């Protein structure tokens, strides 16, 4: 018993050091202003889920790898990138656990946290290595409970998001570039930029992408672990974090998948009820390069 405790004591700081070592730069700008959960964040947190592997590595919640958003009691929306592992293979639905109602990633509350296994992974047919249509839906085995006040369903947009407007992005991603994952869910406010501005700042930028940031002040961008999380206004989800090139950069925005532009696909998946068919992803998987959620 004592030995075990002693080794925990030694190993934990090492793990934290290792984790924060990845991709370290001189830029260590804290990207979020609210370290504790305030009322507004906890209200918005009801819509957000943590995508985890089936079992924790050492501690409850240390297996978080992406965010997602509840768009119906049986469907979670996330980034397609989140469903590809470090060996570039598509995860199996059996590998994933959705955790809802848990704004604190590391704490388990019996009547609050809901652990929902996934029945099907549905990746957008036009998702490519260039992050086009970076979107996926996860169909849950069982619908989420309706009597849990910590869980709520987000609405899909009925119009394009407005350029220049501010949107909220939520997640448990790294607190700064190379830093540790947040334990309490955090939120950032980003401004949506025009297509032309995004194209000027980014190398790869296609029509259905959106870019947003907050370059007037400090680095306010999603970081590793925030992929798949929602960009929202009130209870409407306009975007999904697609890639976080902005993390640690004051001058670079991050890229989001435009939900309004993908409504047709989302509706087609949610309305159909046909049995699972294998997606023709093998060719695509061979192409996928260098994916790392956390750096
Ligand atoms: C906090 O949110 C709850 C609903 O979740 C609400 O009833 C309460 O009035 C809010 N408190 C403040 C100070 O806004
Ligand atoms: C995928 O791309 C093809 C070719 O551009 C297009 O015809 C099709 O509608 C797209 N699918 C979806 C769901 O957007
Ligand atoms: C749709 O699928 C669910 C399970 O995924 C099943 O319970 C339900 O009966 C199906 N509905 C129809 C109309 O096939």
UniProtKB/TrEMBL annotation:
User: What GO cellular-component annotations does this UniProt entry give?
Assistant: extracellular region
- List its EC numbers: 3.4.21.4
Matches recorded under InterPro entries: Peptidase_S1, Peptidase_S1_PA, Peptidase_S1_PA_chymotrypsin, Peptidase_S1A, Trypsin_dom
Q: Which UniProt keywords apply?
A: Disulfide bond, Hydrolase, Protease, Serine protease, Signal, Zymogen
Keyword match tRNA processing: no
Query: Reaction catalysed by this chain?
Result: Preferential cleavage: Arg-|-Xaa, Lys-|-Xaa
**Which stretches make up the Peptidase S1 domain?**
47-271
Show the GO MF annotations: serine-type endopeptidase activity
Q: Which domain of life is it from?
A: Eukaryota
The first-level EC class reads: hydrolase
Give the subcellular location: Secreted, Extracellular space
Q: Does Chaperone count among this protein's keywords?
A: no
Q: Name one GO biological process term.
A: proteolysis
Q: Signal peptide span per the entry? A: 1-21
Task: Please report which protein family the annotation says this sequence is part of.
Answer: Belongs to the peptidase S1 family.
What is the protein name stated in its UniProt record? Answer: trypsin
Which species is listed as the source?
Drosophila persimilis (Fruit fly)
Q: Which gene encodes it?
A: Dper\GL22039
